[in-house]
Amino acid sequence: MKYLCSTPFAHPASVVTARLVSPPGPSRNSTRSAAASPLGAYETFLDRAAEGLTATGAFTDLDRPAFPWSRTYTRDEWLDQLRTSGLAKPLADAGKLDTILTRTATAIDAAGGTFTLNSTAVALTATRR
Question: In the chain, where are the structural domains located?
């Protein structure tokens, strides 16, 4: 039987949105690093999972497929996504959600009202012995 562990990685536009309202400083620089290679964070996660599966001796044929995909969002579609993301509640609690939504809308409008988000879904599969 084949088992699957998959995870999408952070939307680059979410990182861009966070940059719009983040003050300069160390936290902003770490956001830049995450944006440079969001897949890298998931590679680390998948490496650990693969090591754990291998260490059990119960799995073989580990594979790590990746599935690139793209979607074009309008400003309103993206704002709806942000309002329902896991970022919304802590930002609303901190009084920053409205600012992020306004600045994000302005940035998307300045880019022509839409943007294309390029993503990659990654997975780790293994066969149980």
Answer: 2-128
- What is the identity of the amino acid at 73? Y
**pLDDT, tens digit, for every residue of 66-77?**
899 999 999 999
Residue 122 makes CB contacts below 8 A (sequence gap 6+) with 6, 7, 8, 9, 39, 42, 43, 46, 64, 65, 66, 67
Answer whether 124's CB lies under 8 Å from 4's CB: yes
Query: What's the predicted TM-score (pTM) here?
Result: 0.62
- Tell me the per-residue pLDDT of 21-66, one tens digit each, with 9 for 90 and over: 444 444 444 444 444 567 777 888 889 999 999 999 999 999 999 8
**Which value, in Å, is the radius of gyration of the alpha carbons in the chain?**
18
pLDDT at 87: 86
Cα(110)–Cα(107) distance, integer angstroms = 5
The distance of Cα 49 from the centroid of its chain, to the nearest Å, equals 19
Residue with tokens 């770490």: 30
Q: What are the tokens at 15?
A: 């990182």
Nearest to 11 by CA among 95, 90, 84: 84
